Write the structure tokens for this entry.
Amino acid sequence: MADKARIAVMVSGGGTNLQALIDAQNSGLIEKGEIVLVISNREEAYAAERARKAGIETHVVTRKANGGQEGFEKVCMELIDSRDVDLIVLAGFLTILSKDFVTHYEHRIINIHPALIPSFCGDGFYGIKPHIAALERGVKVTGATVHYVNEIADGGEIIAQKAVNVEEGDTPEILQRRVMEQAEWLILPVAVAKICRRIVKERNGRI
Ligand code: GRF
């Protein structure tokens, strides 16, 4: 539908952030956006199953099957561009994208990071690792960040953040779950909804 921004979501894992986006689309929270494509870089990612169940065009694109990073990105770009995607969301996506890819989609890729950037971010801080580092440092508050993706890992403009308390006795897994439930799954859909509204307004020349 022309009055909606077209969203592609790139995933690698369980897909709980993707599920939050699907639920937000179905509830009408993401009123001006439509998830038209999901790309998983891992065959076994349950995120791909979630996408298929939601009736979204889903592709598994691996580096192994496409001759490495360059071939992987070429296939992804062909899928993204041929589906007229406006916004790319990295949701639990665990592969670094090249500078060429990121600059090709400048200011059109966003990511959810499971910490309050600039804490516990950058190379090597992905998945459970930011939570391990937060507990090792002894912080009392952590959280999640939605940010634009540029050529620096977790270095792009911050869009939204939400703080989450660290509790006595937290393990990395318990903390990760709390950050997902109380931060990631809330701020990512809201950020996507806001960006889609802007995209549609700009496209309709109402700005
Ligand atoms: C989440 O903590 C996410 O922030 C991180 O990977 C974990 C799993 O994400 N990048 P999901 O369940 O695959 O969305």
